[in-house]
Structure of Prolyl 3,4-dihydroxylase TPA1/OFD1 N-terminal domain-containing protein:
Amino acid sequence: MLFQAGLFDSKNAESLRCTEVNRSLTFKFDENKVYRIQRSTHLANISNPDEYAPELLPNLTQLRDALNGPEFRAWVSSITGVGPLSGTRSSMAVNMYVLGDHLLTHDDCNPKSRNRRLSFILYLTDPGEPWLPDWGGGLRLYATKPASTADGGVFRIAEPS
């Protein structure tokens, strides 16, 4: 698995976060009703020498390939029950949050991602400066229950906790 492959040993994680992401990726401001972030290019593009110097992103390239690889997809499929994941429609980017940026409560259901079967976030925080709960940013998952619209449509709403 990823952790056994050494992708997240302290040396590779530090290189990925500090050297590759902070020095070799470019970010653009992106905002909508759900988020306000600094977003990198789609990670498929980091192998494009016209946009990036791939040799400057070895750990990010390895991580991207591992997350899209058959072994990881089979593992995720087995623990989530979403069925086989082809890897042909994966979307990956690096997002950076600076003061004022945020990700609001949302359900990942929108017209652009209506075929999305799985979504996850991998946080690469600074091990030398552990994340403090007072800073916010905690991931909360909510159970949902089905509900019906007046015209018979079905949707899901968060259950009160």
Q: What stands out?
A: The first strand starts at residue 28 and ends at 31.
